Amino acid sequence: GGAMSFLKRFPPPAEGVRHQQPDTEAVLAGRTLGAGTLYIAESRLSWLENSGVGFSLDYPSISLHAVSRDLNAYPWEHLYVMVNAKFEEEETKEAPMAEGEEEEDSDDDVEPIAEFRFVPSDKSALEAMFSAMCECQALHPDPDDEDSDNDYEGEEYDVEAHELEQGDIPTFYTYEEGLSHLTAEGQATLERLEGMLAQSVSSQYNMAGVRTEDSIREFEDGMEVDVAPVVAGQFEDAEVDH
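The line above is the sequence of Methylosome subunit pICln; the predicted structure tokens follow.
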């Protein structure tokens, strides 16, 4: 009851169990939940106390799992599992607050995090527990990872499917990213446009009668030399016709 209300009675998983570790203590936020059996199944990670109540964790909610052998951090070697979720057990008043935890929790942006430790009586099983977790976690790729920097390589990543899934959401690049996405041809066009823009700006200065040394030189190197003969030629032809 009360503090332990997230513990539910359910049958042990029967399918896809990659590893089963009896006589394993579960510890949440530094408080023991008792001894039970840890089931590392393909669908989820479950722990069942010997009395038949326990809890399950979904792999997508597990942000980290590791074998902890640092006896200064915790006195027994164990499988450490961090979960992006809140469990009622932690919110009870008796739960000891780690230093600095309070300020963090009051901040709305902080994701809820729960720390579980699974301490097997047989610590030689830790490697197998860890491997089984890696295998199962791999069956549940995190949808959010597609937006992160882990670019998928090769065939694992179906670009078209990804585009379809994204629907009409446009991709926004920052200016620098946008430049790096331009083709070489696009780059050249951009530079040419920037050049023309600079020239037309300098020609405006000339028209306005503001003749700085720079603008005259730029202007003579640029448009005037190309344009003037052509324009003159057209006028001559026009006069001849009449």
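Note on the example: The beta strands are 8-9, 17-28, 31-41, 44-49, 53-58, 62-68, 78-83, 114-120. The mean pLDDT is 74.
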